[in-house]
């Protein structure tokens, strides 16, 4: 069994590889990392208000407006009126534009699918349980870092 230090190194290398893949994907799409993340959020959620996008990305409202402007100019998102509150703007992904993103992340998804396929169904359940529990933990940690950064 690996020591605690060895496990820490393995886990750090994993996290670094995931982070570097995100940066490489953003670069390949001609986007900044925050733009890449915003597109991913919108792809997963379907649409968000500009305020929700601001909260989820950790950007100020002004920076979020500029982010939406850039993504709209690039054809990745569109603004629509909120059905119940005219003061709010809904930001939704443009499905055809997301096909280009899929082409960029497709190879990684294929490689990771091959890795996951090597595990038994029971082991896969543990992996996906970890993913489901770790994602909110990392989001909470990210919010904590933002709150304490200055």
From TrEMBL:
It comes from the Bacteria. Keywords: DNA-binding. One of its GO terms (molecular function) is DNA binding. Residues 1-136 form the HTH marR-type domain. The keyword Transferase does not apply. Pfam families: MarR_2 (PF12802). This is DNA-binding MarR family transcriptional regulator.
